[in-house]
Design goal:
The complex is a heterodimer of chains A (about 80) and B (about 150). Chain A has about 80 residues and is of the alpha+beta class. Chain A has one domain (about 1-75): Ubiquitin-like (UB roll). In chain A, about 30% of the residues lie in helices and about 25% in strands. Chain A is built from 3 helices and 5 strands; from the N terminus they run βαβααβββ. Chain A has helices spanning about 10-15, 30-40, 40-45; strands spanning about 1-5, 20, 55, 60, 70-75. Chain A has a 5-stranded mixed sheet. Chain A is globular. The termini of chain A are far apart. Chain B is an alpha+beta fold and about 150 residues long. Chain B has a single domain (about 1-145), classed as Aldehyde Oxidoreductase, domain 3, CATH 3.90.1170.40. Chain B has 4 helices and 8 strands. Chain B has helices spanning about 10-20, 55-70, 100-115, 135-140, and strands at about 1-5, 30-35, 45-50, 75-80, 80-85, 90-95, 120-125, 130. Classes of the chains: A alpha+beta (about 80), B alpha+beta (about 150). The interface of A and B includes residues 59 and 79 of A.
Chain lengths: ~80, ~150
């Protein structure tokens, strides 16, 4: 089981802030493909990867990163702090 | 070093004074305050979402990096989340160093990295609806100078 979190417009498009997912996805990209195949709202949220960022266990990561040992995956748009 | 992530307002004067007073041995203190722009009166409110846990980790890592790069005596970051209105202070950064060059540079570095690497997302609520603030290319490019 992996905890998947969504923020900002990713959260709005998918319609929930977090969910627990049973997955065998090997990488972030595999997880995105799996979720996108589920329902349109996921496909819409993940349509443009250039406008998305991913964090694994609260560290910024990349879409080709492996998920082995990861407990928490977060998807969100580029950050706008400050 | 002190890092605060909170929903409520902070007292800019009290924080600045306490920071400067506590920075024993400093010859320079630089403070920066970010304010919610009201966009010519069209902004009703701004909502700032964040990623609890990662926010603190990311900011702490940026502060550690600043301390490794410059000779700092102390640093402070306060960043708010939740609903704010035009004119309110969103965040502040303060740096204290023996000399001003380090204090200025570290403050700018902290600001550049907070903009693009701290997990906050701003949503503007205006008269014509709500929209997420898009990250600017120049904010990402600003990281390259460090």
């Amino acid at each position: 089981m992996i905890e998947v979190l969504y923020f900002a417009w990713v959260r709005e498009r998918i319609g929930l802030p977090r969910e627990r997912i049973e997955t065998r996805a090997a990488t972030v990209a595999d997880l995105i493909a799996e979720l996108s195949a589920r329902e349109d709202r996921y496909a819409m949220a993940f349509a443009d990867l250039a406008s998305l960022r991913v964090a694994l266990d609260q560290e910024l990561s990349s879409f080709d990163a492996p998920l082995a040992g990861v407990r928490e995956v977060a998807f969100f748009p580029p950050m706008t702090g400050g | 070093m002190r890092l605060v992530v909170q929903a409520g307002p902070f007292d800019l004067g009290a924080e600045s004074t306490a920071f400067a007073t506590g920075a024993v041995g400093a010859g320079a203190v630089v403070t920066f305050t970010g304010i919610v722009r009201d966009n010519g009166g069209t902004l009703a409110a701004m909502e700032i979402e964040h990623y609890p846990g990662m926010t603190e980790r990311a900011i702490a890592a940026i502060m550690d990096e600043a301390q490794a790069r410059w000779h700092l005596i102390d640093a402070l970051v306060i960043h708010r989340h939740g609903r704010l209105v035009g004119g309110e202070a969103i965040m502040m950064v303060a740096t204290a160093a023996p000399h001003r060059a380090d204090a200025f540079a570290a403050a700018e570095f902290l600001m550049d990295y907070l903009k693009s690497r701290a997990p906050f997302w701003k949503k503007e609520l205006g008269r014509d609806g709500a929209s997420w603030v898009a990250a600017k290319d120049e904010d990402e490019a600003a990281l390259n100078r460090w």
